[in-house]
Amino acid sequence: MSGEVHALPRFYASPLGRVAARLVGARMAALWPDCTGLDMLGLGWAGPYMAAWAGQAGRRVLLTPADLGPAPPGTAAAEEDRLPLPDSSFDRILLVHGLEISETGRALLRECWRVLRDDGRLMVVVPNRLGSWALFDHTPFGQGRPYSRGQLQRLLEQQLFRMRRREAALFVPPFPSGTLLRGAGVWDRAGRRFVRRLAGVTLIEAEKDMLAAIPAGRVPLRRRVVVPVPARFAAAKRETTAAP
Fold first, then answer.
1. Is the domain 8-216 a CATH 3.20.20.80 member?
2. SS3 letters for 2-41?
3. Above 80 in pLDDT, residue 178?
């Protein structure tokens, strides 16, 4: 991953970061209201959002790529294209501040596919190309590559995921002042009702598509087999060819 992400710990300790975690976390909880008994992996910088499932039973693991800087307490460092996890080990994966700044995004998604169980689901959070948060670089959502909804869906489908649901969050502009953020809830409700395409971030829930990994029908194999001709047959053929 690129190391250009803007001071993640400082951002989430600021009023703007706390508002972002609250508003985006609310949409995450709407998509996954109950993860009791499920094993969940938070990938990228997912720590501020895992509180949406606090108190629910189940294994919770946080992995942060080393390029994002020192991992926060309770988080392990990992290579994004070689996750130190066995196949089919998680029911849910939350990917935040990961795909948009990844230099190997397709490999990252394939790793997510690998470690998900057969009925597992992935939630990806990325900056929206049409939103105001992608236009300002004083937040982590202004770093890396923003996505439109169609771009993100096609990328997931190419990596053997099937989209289930889509959400939007962060309609409030990224005001640096805490005073201007007091009406963030009003901004969010109005934006969700009238201008969903202008959200700051897009959330997509995708399902591991096992059928996409299986070839449709039998693939014909054509190959040329060369068999040595016995010497007596080769001699007989030469004699037949030489005869008038």
1. no
2. CCCCCCHHHHHHCHHHHHHHHHHHHHHHHHCCCCCCCCEE
3. no
